[in-house]
Structure formats: C-alpha cells, structure tokens
Amino acid sequence: MDTKALLTGGLAAVFLLTGCQSQDESAPQAPEPPAVEAEPAEAELSRAEAVPEAGAGERLQAVLAAQPAEAQARYPDRNPAETLAFFGIEPGMTVVELLPGGGWYSRILAGYLGADGTLIGVNYPQDIWPLFGFMDEERIAGMATWAEDWPQQAADWAVEDPARYQAFVLGELPEDLVGTADAVVMIRALHNLARFDAEHGFMQPALADVYAVLKPGGIVGVVQHEARPDMPDEWATGENGYLKRDFVIARFEAAGFERVDESDINANPRDQPTVADSVWRLPPSLRGADDEQTRAARLAIGESNRMTLKFRKPE
Predict the structure, then answer these.
(1) Of 61, 173, 199, 225, whose CB is crowded by the most CB atoms within 10 A?
(2) What is the pLDDT of residues 9-45, one digit of tens each?
(3) Which of 110, 135, 127, 102 has its CA nearest to residue 60?
(4) What is the rounded distance in angstroms from the CA atom of residue 95 to the CA atom of residue 119?
(5) For position 49, what pLDDT does the model report?
(6) Domains recognised in the chain with CATH numbers
(7) Which residues in 222-233 are b (16+ Cβ under 10 Å) and which e?
(8) pLDDT for res 19
(9) Least confident of 23-27, 89-93, 110-114, 276-280
C-alpha cells in the first residue's frame, strides 16, 4: 500500500468524512491560470508523497478532525494532511497564504501553526477586481481595506490556540515582513494572476513579493488546477481555471526559485476537460449542473486534477 493510502486510511476514522458539498474558499468564482504538464528530467524530482513528523502529524490530525463536516467532506479531494506534510509545514512557522478567500485552508493552517506561529493572508492587488466583470463598485471599493479587515475576520473564526494573523495585498508588501516567512502556500491561487497577465502583468510582481517575503531557503507550495499538455495553450491561460505544469514551473524559475519536488497527491485522472469546459463545472461549484444526471456525473469525477509543486528560495 502506498503512503497516501496509509495516510488516508489512518485519518478516515478521525475525519468522519461526509458526502456533503461546501462552497469553494477562493475569493471570486473566476477562472485560474495555465499549468504545464511535463515530467521533470531531474531524477531527484520523484513525485514523493510525504508523511508528517509524528508530533506534528498528531496535531494536524486533531485540527482536521475539529473542522466542520462540510469542510471535512472536501478532504478526499484536497488531501490537506498529505499536502501540508509534503510542503513541510510545521507548527510555529510563519506561513503566507495567497488568496485565503473564505478560509477553508486558513482555518486549518491557523490551528496547526498554533499560538507560536503566524499566518499571513495575502490578496490580489486592488486593480484586479474590476477585471472579473461581476463585482459591483461597492464590493470593489470594500476590497480596498481587505488587509486591515482580514486579520479581524480570521480572529472571529474562534480557532483554538490560533496563529497570529497578519495580511497584505500583492504589490504592497510591508517592509517589516520582508524575509520573515518560512513558507508560502498558493492553493488554487495562480489562475487569475495568469489569466490577466498578458494585458496587465500581474504574475511577475506577485512572484516578486512571494520571493521577497520568504527567508532564504524558504519554501513555496503550489496546488493548481492542471491542464493536460495536449490541450491548446490558448485554452490553458487561466480563463478556464487550468494551467499547464511547464508554464507554472517556468514562471517560478524565472522569478528566481529552485524547483524542489512535485507530487501526485492531488492528481485526479478522472478530470478530463474538453475545450468547452472550465474547472467550475466540477464540485464544489458545479456550475451548469442543472439536472440530477449531470450533477451525479460531475460529483463522480470529483474536484479538479491538480499539480502539487514545491519550490525554494535559494539560500
């Protein structure tokens, strides 16, 4: 039996998984950036699947077991225990989460990092919001105070012994946070940066902030909807939520990061989109699933096929 199976089996009794649906935590329900699929040439990129350290693993299991049923229902698709272990996230760290949205991962991270840790939420730059086309002026204006509002919103989650909360928006990294983070996690957060990049150039400044906030040797963990390599590049721009693996790797390497490893933890071969599809056809969004047959078919697929990549800021 492989590591993931062992972890999943061991956690199942604790998690009391249910079949109910929950809303995606991503901020706007809009498409993501392209990911390139390509097998790494380097032998050391082994697609490893990590097991948590014993003490840290017990703490993480307890935090996961404390989440509400609707959050636990997503565990089989999102594999939070395996994913955070693979990224090397541990209690007491300072971790940056890009695009925390409704806080699905944030609540887990806050409890797992604990009172000795810090969770820094990071949102998109203010000038991205009008580009989505579905946000009214009042909502866009409200995003201007997000960095001040988010720590208080997070404090209201009543997480037991939570991490300290801080926040900033891309392009406005506070000087006192430069070089302070042990890790940055980017969970389904790249697609909109890539989607609007050709015209507005969001990716390079965003990755520059990620690089700057990390300590030397700090880790970036990426989970991103992955497009098959045979899909047209013009489809895999993030507009439909998917990016190609090679695209993501190239952009991180161009920003100065070293590729460390990758994993199939969040892969889902049942997700085989056509050029007419977007990632939001799948759960939890189920966009366009207007009849029971369609809904059942998409639930059977599960959430999207996702690459899981690990990068490092050089020492």
Answers:
(1) 225
(2) 443 333 333 333 333 444 443 333 333 333 333 323 3
(3) 110
(4) 5
(5) 38
(6) 3-312 (3.40.50.150)
(7) bbbbbbbeebee
(8) 30
(9) 23-27
Which amino acid belongs to residue 89? I
- The structure tokens 């190609």 sit at 244
